[in-house]
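Reopening: structure tokens for the adenosine-5'-triphosphate complex, inputs below.
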Amino acid sequence: MSHIALQDIAKSFGPVRVLDGCSVAVDKGTVMTLLGPSGCGKTTLLRTLAGFVEPDSGRVVVGGRDITDLPPNRRQVGYVFQSYALFPHLDVAANVAYGLRVRRVSQAETQARVRKALDLVSLSAYADRYPARLSGGQQQRVAIARALVLEPEVLLLDEPFNALDAKLRLSMQIELRKLIERVGITSIFVTHDQQEAMTLSDRVAVMRAGRIEQVGAPIDIYDRPRTAYVAAFIGRANVLPVDIRGGRVAPDPAIAAARADGAAWLVVRPENLAIENAGEGPGWHGTVAFATPQGATIEYEIAVGMAEPLRVVALRKVGEPPAAVGSPVRVRAVDPAACVVLGEGPDSV
Amino acid sequence: MTKNLAPIDRIGRVVLGVVAAFSLLLLVAPSLIVVAISFEPRGFIAFPPSGFSLRWYEHVFANRQLTDSVVVSLWVSLAVAGITLALGVPAAFASVRGTFAGKAAANAFLLAPQMMPGMVIGIASLFFGAYFAFRASNAMLILALSVFCLPFVIRIAMARLAGLDPRLDEASANLGAGKLETFVRVTLPQLGPALVAAAAFTFIEAFDNVTVALFTSDVRGRPLPVELYYLVQYDSTPAIAAISALEIGLSFAIMLVLARTVGLERLGR
Ligand SMILES: Nc1ncnc2c1ncn2[C@@H]1O[C@H](COP(=O)(O)OP(=O)(O)OP(=O)(O)O)[C@@H](O)[C@H]1O
Ligand SMILES: [Mg+2]
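Re-run output (same inputs, fresh job):
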């Protein structure tokens, strides 16, 4: 049974329906990531779980207990705010100690736990600084320490690492992941960074306009996006209009499609396309519009007469020059089985 | 730094300096003159004073009626500061954080007394009291002055509250604190300096208010400003200057204490 269950949550702010029958379930001790464009309701969903937003309908269940009507301070749900929300009149140590003080934990234990929490986020040297004198990334780490020090059963993090540099971000991700596993925290966490989603989460939920579009293990979502929207959101994808004829995709019959003849959409990742010499044969015919060597790979944009160019990522050998811009080429799928055929394209909502 | 300034900028600086000095002089000079006059040994007001004596200070402290009125004024001002804080802070909360129908109207209503001359409030209180057969008294004075001063407190508290991040309250709740504990641990400490400032300004305002007090105060236990008002009419001696000098000293002392405890620059916030 799942530890956190948000069931059919709906919420409107005035005429705007921000959450539209949104359901999420998270198993105990696992990390769920919410991915979605700005304004799709990720923060509102977390706030509903923390009790800051009263849903118009739907239930919030944690550990088998319906907490929909419980006030925020009686829910054991840690929350790291997108805007940090540190107490400006308290120094770093006092900010982290806040929850312990409220719980009347003894002075000695408070000090020990605060020190440990600050160590975890590498901020021990800043214990007596005030938030106004910290950088954005430091404030963010204080906010994380403040929530973690209580070792909550449920932890919600709203873009907790967006102010950190790449190196710190990675080490915080790893530390957080270890801590979550050690303590057995069930967490939901919002990010715009799909790399982060891959690193940190057991499952990913892709949100769209107040609903969950698809939930699954990150790699499953990457491999088997159910809609063009999801495909474009996790990793990069070419979403191409194609014709189905006799269970085969028209330009490249190597790709099988288990659907009736007619128009359809093909999702194919850039690394699953390869450039071949021009000439007669199956595939997409076009010319090289852009070629950018990136070190290990070369990124191509191939103009094939569609609205969007095809994006192709090819492995690069040392010393090999990229195909010349303007030269005619033919593009084919490397692994036809890894392509996904969908009935609906990117524009249909 | 000044070396690199263009001549026009340099002239501008000089003009600015002169204007600033002159304005400062205009602000401070009357107070200084009053203080100087209070040391006049003779029995009439003269500037510059013909000598130095503390005679009029002795006179003031020996005057039972005057010292009584000071005590009345102190009590009244303290009461007004207390009442306006007790009413003003919750009102400010409601008008900043609250979501209810007619909030804008309620806000306008709360701040309305500020638009009204004190005299009007004084007379209105008198008539209102008379209607209920409630005579002018210090209780009425306290009520009328509270009405008069309430908008100050609400204004200051509102300005500060509006600057507070409501997420902080959520963070506090999320960390387990109830509403009251959040207020004590998070809101109050940040509101503190503004409230001290509000209390101090209200106290000073109540202490030297004449317009309201003239109509509402008790005939026997008159507050200081009213007492002075009558005093000047019959008996224009440097005693008035001595009292004024003492009041200036009191305001100064309050400001000094504020500056030392909360810091003047934090008061405005
Ligand atoms: N208290 C509120 N009152 C009115 N509208 C709100 C409120 N909170 C959120 N909204 C609206 O709800 C929508 C979703 O907001 P939300 O903060 O949940 O988005 P988000 O997915 O977290 O976006 P981002 O990635 O930019 O943080 C937005 O259109 C926002 O304007
Ligand atoms: Mg958000």
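Helices of chain A lie at 42-50, 92-102, 107-120, 136-148, 166-183, 194-200, 218-223, 228-233. The mean pLDDT of chain A is 89. Marking as resolved unless the reporter disagrees.
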